[in-house]
Amino acid sequence: MQRLSVVILAAGKGERMVSKKPKVMHEIMGKPMVSYVIRRAKELLPTKIVVVLGHGRELVEGYVKEFGVECAVQAEQKGTAHALLMAEELIQGDDVLVLYGDVPLIEGSTLDGLLSFYEKARAVVFMTTEVENPFGYGRVIVEGDRIERIVEEVDATPEEKERRGESEKILAGIDTEGVLAAKKDTEETFLAREKELEEMRALLVRLRTDVLLLGREQKELEPIVPKAEPGEGEDERLSPQDIETRLADAQRRIAELGPVNEYAAIQYDEEKGELDRLKAQHLDVVNAAQSLEGIIKEINTQARSRYEQAFVAVREEFRRTFTFFFPGGEADLKLENPDDPFNSAIQITARPEGKQLKRLAQLSDGERTMLGISLLFAFYAVKPAPFLFVDELDAPLDDNNVLKLASFLARVKDRIQIFVITHNKRTMEKADTIYGVTMEEPGVSKIISVRLKDVKRQHVAVEET
What we know:
This protein is 48% helix and 18% strand. It is built from 13 helices and 16 strands. The strands form seven sheets. The protein has a four-stranded parallel beta sheet, with helices on both faces. The chain has a two-stranded antiparallel ribbon with strand order 2-3. Strands 7-10 form a two-stranded antiparallel sheet. The chain is elongated, with a radius of gyration of 54 Å.
């Protein structure tokens, strides 16, 4: 034997194993059963070994590759002949031995005998076996030297079930390449028939659609075409002229209907489905808009309530602070449009004692400054801060107003820590601690701090001495 290729069929699912694992990967003595078949095949020293994969391809391929074999793939399990065709390109021109991956106990001597028999016959050799009780096994039906068919037990006749098996038989005059070519032709014919079947199914669908449309058209024409009276037409014989007249009348009625869209019913269903989808989306949008409107309304209500509360609190603090700076005077804050507080302008009125003013522009610079300071500290009173920076706020004030501002800062220093930047000595007198920058040496700045309480205490001590 010049060149021998061994094809091992391992594409089956193994449904009778009641397992998701590929049948050939079930283990015997700790090893997958396909490993025993590959080892037996290697003992024959073949030119190549091809394993046909199918169900669980990744798992089986990852294992058998370790044995240095080649693989072919049977994407759809269509039987033994189809599986062999999947390996055709890899075994062309070779003598072929086909083994099953789920027959791990086959003996090397059995395979040697089979190949020796093949060498003598030089034809396709098919090996079967005899068992005492063939229950559950398929039957090989042999007539003379020809294998007629192979049947499963459930499909076998009582006479066929009585057969226990046959020894080796030879299909004389048939070579491997001829069998493969015949099987390939059969597969091509099968695929062509499948394609024709799909075309016939498509034609059947179109015919059914035409019948449906014709039925609907008939129903639409029933109100137009007059129905025959009972018994009419049985004895009455119409003349050709009457038939022509009725036909012309029917054609005229059809023409009055105008063009008929044969697919209107189908298009109606499609458009109705789209309309229902849009209505559902519109309903979702409406519900979402209503929900948002409710949320916005609730937010506006809460915001307006908080705004009005804050405005009232600032207004009261503004009045109180203004009267501190201007005893006997009056000041107020008013909304020009109380119905829309968020967009309403705020009107500020102020009247120091002894003055009748209509506009804030009539106030002096110092009075306007004190008015702004009153409003600023009104905000801080409503929304306190841990500390406050004041940068030369007393610069435009006269001595009297500076004393008022310094007195106010001393009053609120227990609640707010105040940092004042000033050049005014009267403001400095009210401070607890003074920080200054001096230059004892040219080009060298130095920060000096003084706690006035300590200075006053030392001054009193000196006077007592």
